[in-house]
Amino acid sequence: MRRIVFCDFDGTITEEETFVAVLKNFAPELSAKLLPEMYARRLTLRQGVRQILASIPSSRYSEILEFTQIQPIRPGFVELLDFLEFQGVPLVVISGGLRGMVETVLDSLVQRVHAIHAVDVDTSSTHLKVISPYEGGTELIAKVQIMSKYPAYQKIAIGDSITDLNMALEANVVFARDRLAEYLDEHKKPYIHWDNFSQVRDYLVKLWK
């Protein structure tokens, strides 16, 4: 592949941090305790997210998907997909959240993304059990590990938070907003600030001329 785009889901494709909202809504006490520790990088995402999910009863999984269904997609996403399809550039969604949530929100757009990598859950026990084939290091979804599956000379990352930091550091071109921009400032990694996907598309139009 000549080029490829890796895109986060929560707070990136969705306007709000959907997965964080789910954790706060379905495990409020543990989330209040562990989320600040994860943001401060005193607790790894791998440890924190696993603990919170494991505290949620499996019987509530359908409620989680219903809660997710109403989440709005950030403006310009379909137009970005149109542009990437025209250019022959695949878009891969890499989410530290749940696959069911990603597929619920994307709905028919699932067919238009090249692949989705996210956390799966086993609901056969009393509480949710995390299944992640790409678990590694500090991450429940090791985004750099997934990126290595897709050889390309230009890797573009779009993200917004701590879960996207390693992905962003690995990419050639980074679109960052919110917490991710602050983390990249600390690492002195250049990025393009963005608020909607139309800005991403417009930048890529100029970059690929």
Q: How does the SSE layout of this entry go?
A:
Layout: E1 3-7, H1 18-26, H2 28-39, H3 45-54, H4 61-69, H5 77-87, E2 91-98, H6 99-106, E3 115-122, E4 129-131, H7 143-147, E5 154-159, H8 165-170, E6 173-176, H9 178-187, E7 192-193, H10 197-207
Parallel strand pairs: 1-2, 1-5, 2-3, 5-6, 6-7
Antiparallel strand pairs: 3-4
Helix pairs in contact: 1-2, 2-3, 4-6, 5-10
Q: What portion of residues belong to β-strands?
A: 15-25%
Distance between the termini: 18 Å
The total domain count is 1
Total number of β-strand segments?
Answer: 7
Helix and strand sequence? EHHHHHEHEEHEHEHEH
Q: What structural category arises from helix and sheet content?
A: alpha/beta
CATH superfamily: HAD superfamily/HAD-like
State the CATH architecture.
Answer: 3-Layer(aba) Sandwich
pLDDT < 50 stretches: none
The tally of helices reads 10
Described by the principal axes of the CA atoms, the overall outline is globular
Mean pLDDT: 95
Biggest sheet features: 7 strands, mixed
Percent helix, as a range, is: 40-55%
Question: How would you describe this protein?
Answer:
This protein is of the alpha/beta class and 209 residues long. It has one domain (3-17, 70-207): Rossmann fold (3-Layer(aba) Sandwich). Helix content is 44%, strand content 17%. It has a 7-stranded mixed sheet with strand order 4-3-2-1-5-6-7. It is globular and about 55 Å long.
Quick gist of this model?
By secondary structure, the protein is of the alpha/beta class.
